[in-house]
Amino acid sequence: MNQSPGAQTGTLDPGDIAAAKRFIAANTRVLTPPLVPEIRLHLAEESLPIWQKTEDELGEMNVPPPFWAFAWAGGQALARYLLDTATLIAGKSVLDLGTGSGLTAIAAMQAGAASVLAADIDRLALAAVALNAELNDVAVAVTAEDLLARPPQPAGVILVGDLFYERQLAERVTAYIEAAAAAGALVLIGDPKRSYFPQGRFERVAEYEVPVTRELEDSEIKRTSVWRLQAP
User: Fold this and answer.
1) Which parts of 89-144 fold into alpha helices (H)?
2) Which of 69, 136, 155, 176 could lock onto 44 through a cystine, CB 3.0 to 4.6 A?
């Protein structure tokens, strides 16, 4: 799985991805997440303008929220942990669920992972991952498949950054990662205890004070933990 930055699997149309990459490059800035200055990302500075432009310029009225355009607290904490404890994932295959901007996928490669597959059903997110992987000179494969709809594929490490914000999604993610852990995968979660975070299911391994924006969060500093799911 050592593929070039932005290498694709699943049903992705190269023309659509190219157009999405042009849109992202034109409507974001290259910035560094506060907790992970080692990584550069194409990020939006405000949420409503990027969402509106996505609808206007891409002609889609049911565009998913542009989660890919921001470095969320859970992703920042998880990326920081990966870089600081690189021996955990060095030489292993990694799956990044709901990758968004690709922040944690990129951090995994920088930490020495053998390969990373970044999964997201939002194709704009996958275009963002391709651009961001190129910015950071790492190889990340991507897939648009809904991996939660089938049993976990073999992976040494599974990363979950900030995916417990909706009930149904949280339930699907929890079922998937529990099955993966039972099969021997190391599961690491970055989350500030969102609304549907499964209390009592994980072991905290690190905690960070993550600088965020009040436009997206309820404070300017979000206390965020990295959690490990133990195999049953």
Assistant:
1) 103-110, 123-135
2) 69
Instruction: Please count the other Cβ atoms lying within 10 Å of the Cβ belonging to residue 25.
Output: 13
Q: How many CB atoms lie within 10 A of CB 30?
A: 12
pTM of the model: 0.89
For residues 7 and 28, give the distance between their C-alpha atoms in angstroms, rounded to a whole number: 22
The helix/strand/coil state of 58 is helix
CATH architecture of 10-229: 3-Layer(aba) Sandwich (3.40)
Residues for the chain: how many in total? 232
The 10 Å CB-count burial string (b at 16+, else e) for 89-126 is beebbbbbbbbbbbbbbbbbbbbebebbbbbbbbbbbb
pLDDT in tens, 167-218: 999 999 999 999 999 999 999 999 999 999 998 889 999 999 999 877 777 7
